[in-house]
Amino acid sequence: MNITQANNVIAVLNRVAELVTSLAADVESAAWEGLEDHVGMPGARPIAAAQLAQPSLEAAAAEHDHAQAEDSAQVETPDLALSLEDVRAVLSDLSSQGLTKQVRQLILDAGADRLSEVDPANYEWLLTRAKGLADA
Q1: What pLDDT, in 10s, does the model give residues 52-66?
Q2: What pTM, to 2 d.p., does this model score?
Q3: Nearest to 15 by CA among 67, 69, 65, 55
Q4: Are 109 and 120 in contact, with CB atoms under 8 Å apart?
């Protein structure tokens, strides 16, 4: 397991912990609502542990989330300019492997009758699907 996968697992476990805490708070609230206040009950109802604020942790978590969002935004923008020749090479290779009908269908699915008519914005989609054919 690499660090990215470990961070994803930790994030999911943190979310599960938040949901369990929220559920426990709802159960506690429902239990308190079921009790009738009477003269013999001294003081106010206790504050649920889930409702206690921890400003230092909240600020640190917000700062971490902000930094992580900036990092992921930088990672998600690789500038890979695909050319028609790149796509043509991959599709030509697949066609020579006997997948001509599937390659033709991919071009049609990309919204064109010929490879040269495919919108360059669809090159990445086309290569992804072509690699799926190659792996199959």
Answers
A1: 556 666 666 677 677
A2: 0.41
A3: 65
A4: no
